[in-house]
Amino acid sequence: MGLRAFGVGIGWAALVVLTACQNAVPPKVPQPPATPRITLLPDAEGLLVQPSGKRIDFGRAPSGVIPVLDREFGAHDVLPLTHCPADVTARHRWGTLELSFTDERFVGWRQWAELRGAELRGAEVQGQVCPVTSDQTVS
Asked: Does residue 4 fall inside a structural domain?
């Protein structure tokens, strides 16, 4: 086999690989189940996970909380940090449950009592949370 034939063979192989890459199916983003498999019960230590009885307690790293809740309840809403304590660096909401985080840990929750239209009403809180603002609505 001459060098020219070898070069043509490599050219065809490269073309096949590039074509395969362009036609590759993008990875699927996991969708939450139609009905969540867990229920979260907020309490003085964090969150009780039912039916397993496991816990997501205050102090757990955000990386050990957020992906689990996104998988079970769908993508979270990112909330503004207006008037939050200085060390609260993230607020996320799944439905009527709002969680607060520092860079390293889960520090507080707010469980809204009801959702009326796009407005959240009444809440229980535990741990470090941001004050309620007049624009607390569901987006």
From this structure: no
Instruction: Let me know if residue 16 belongs to a domain.
Output: no
Task: Count how many domains the chain has.
Answer: 1
Select the highest-mean-pLDDT range: 23-32, 42-51, 117-126: 42-51
Q: Residue 101 in contact with residue 117, Cβ under 8 Å?
A: no
Category of 37 on φ-ψ map: left (φ > 0), alpha (ψ -120 to 50) or beta: alpha
- Classify each residue of 17-45 as buried b or exposed e, where b means 16 or more C-beta atoms within 10 Å of its C-beta: eeeeeeeeeeeeeeeeeeeeebebebeee
CA distances from 104 to 22, 72, 87, 137 (A): 39, 22, 10, 27
Distance in angstroms (rounded) separating the CA atoms of residues 133 and 51 = 34
pLDDT one-digit tens code per residue, 80-130? 999 999 999 999 999 889 999 999 999 999 998 766 655 666 778 899 999
